[in-house]
Amino acid sequence: ETGVTQTPRHLVMGMTNKKSLKCEQHLGHNAMYWYKQSAKKPLELMFVYSLEERVENNSVPSRFSPECPNSSHLFLHLHTLQPEDSALYLCASSQDRFHSQYNEQFFGPGTRLTVL
Amino acid sequence: QQPVQSPQAVILREGEDAVINCSSSKALYSVHWYRQKHGEAPVFLMILLKGGEQKGHEKISASFNEKKQQSSLYLTASQLSYSGTYFCGTEMEEDTDKLIFGTGTRLQVFP
């Protein structure tokens, strides 16, 4: 595998379910990100991890819980979601956090989440 | 804080040029440009830093006007492969380490 991979690619869950999204990067990067992309809305940054430490929590509801066990893996644990949480969830990684001209982000293909 | 992109949509014939603008009401440190094709992940195009030079990527280039807090993406002699949604992401001077994306500009190139 190369680049950034995400599983599952599609997920349908009820409001009372608990599920997890997984992201893995094979680029040796130090920073990883979760974004939410809804129809007709801009990409919304949710969480930023740098060297496995959470450095940004962009006012995300507690029903979304991130986990970064090591620099290559990032999870997003979901529980008691709402229908408005249906969206494409994108994971990305970069060599380091922002504030650098070398900080291009590499995105995974995303998980299309539908909450019923 | 969210940057404003214009236009919202562009339709071109192959070989035509286009300009996409990204404006902020706050002082910017950097502007990032990405392209996302339908059903695919966003792909990095370029980063422009405050005080930096205009950048180019094949026939796609961009500039950063610090006085106007605006960046422009120039697509020259467009190709079918340029179709997609273009996003700018801005990093503000007062709050670096956070990239805020605009709503995107949808570009369609026809033969």
Structural account:
The complex is a heterodimer of chains A (116) and B (111). Chain A has 116 residues and is mainly β. Chain A has no helices and 11 strands. Chain A has strands at 4-7, 10-13, 18-25, 31-37, 44-50, 53-57, 64-70, 73-79, 87-94, 106-107, 111-115. In chain A, strands 2, 4, 5, 6, 9, 10 and 11 form a 7-stranded mixed beta sheet that branches. In chain A, strands 1-3-8-7 form a 4-stranded antiparallel beta sheet, with no helix packed on it. The relative contact order of chain A is 0.33. The model of chain A has no long low-confidence stretch (mean pLDDT 90). By secondary structure, chain B is mostly beta strands. In chain B, the strands form 2 sheets. In chain B, strands 2, 4, 5, 9, 10 and 11 form a 6-stranded mixed beta sheet that branches. In chain B, strands 1-3-8-7-6 form a 5-stranded antiparallel beta sheet, with no helix packed on it. In chain B, a hairpin with a 2-residue loop joins strand 9 and strand 10 (95-101). The mean pLDDT of chain B is 90. The interface between A and B is medium-sized, with 24 and 25 residues.
